[in-house]
Specification:
Distance between the termini: 28 Å
CATH architecture of the largest domain: Beta Barrel
CATH topology of the largest domain: M1 Pyruvate Kinase, Domain 3
CATH superfamily of the largest domain: PK beta-barrel domain-like
Number of domains: 2
Strand content: 15-25%
Helix content: 25-40%
Number of helices: 6
Shape: globular
Mean pLDDT: 92
Number of strands: 13
Strand order of the largest sheet: 1-8-7-11-10-9-13
């Protein structure tokens, strides 16, 4: 059940990471994050000092700050008790919170964090690095299936923040779509064109997602593969 975002959510920890190598992998990754102490600067491309091994898939203005709810770590620990690194900062997030999930959060929502203003831009797309980080196959697929990858903010107003600051909901655009609904719609095998159009039209959605969804709609029209 969704909650009304009237009360601020406390950011328990803030994380950044440097590019390194996962065990047994030759490809770089900055999925292993370390807790920051004191105040940090949030710029248009994210938190100062946070690195990304593949800028095509991570970082940039539309994926500036990643939030991963603590509730999802608990769910993953129950589903994969043998997995490693299921702790805050373990799966690449910048912000750690409790009490805010994809059910409650809508694309386009605007939040205040310290002196910065952030807007929900898109869900995270889980990749192979999650399995590599956890040392267990199937974690990334589970995250995708259940829509529990967290989400990315764009930075509307750069500023400063620190662990313990409130993440305060300021605004929700008319016609907003929850991240949970967005994720369910994308996972549908044969979604209706009306649903895809609704998702692509979500206010505040990252342009790359708009293009992907519109492209899928066009493919469905041309191939007659309609519900």
């Amino acid at each position: 059940m969704a909650v009304e975002l009237t009360a601020p959510v406390i950011v328990g920890d803030i994380f950044t990471g440097r590019v390194g190598f996962l065990p047994g992998e030759s490809r770089g990754s900055a999925i292993a994050k370390e807790r920051l102490e004191g105040r940090c600067v949030i710029g248009s491309d994210g938190i100062a000092g946070d690195e990304h091994a593949d800028p095509r898939a991570h970082g940039g203005p539309e994926k500036a700050v990643h939030l991963f709810p603590l509730e999802h770590y608990e769910a993953l620990a129950r589903a994969f008790p043998e997995a490693r690194n299921l702790h805050p900062g373990g799966l690449g997030e910048n912000l750690s919170t409790r009490g805010l999930t994809e059910v409650d959060t809508h694309i386009g929502d605007i939040f205040a964090l310290g002196t910065a203003r952030l807007q929900v831009a898109q869900p995270r797309t889980p990749c192979w690095k999650i399995d590599a980080r956890c040392g267990v196959e199937g974690v990334a697929a589970h995250v995708a299936e259940h829509g529990i990858a967290g989400w990315y903010f764009r930075v509307l107003t750069p500023g400063e923040c620190a662990a313990g600051d409130s993440l305060l909901h300021l605004e929700r655009p008319t016609g907003a779509v929850s991240l949970a609904r967005f994720n369910r719609g994308l996972r549908a095998q044969r979604p209706a064109l009306e649903l895809l159009d609704r998702l692509a039209s979500a206010p505040g959605l990252a342009p790359d997602w708009v293009r992907k969804i519109r492209s899928r709609m066009e493919w469905l029209r041309q191939n007659g593969d309609l519900p």
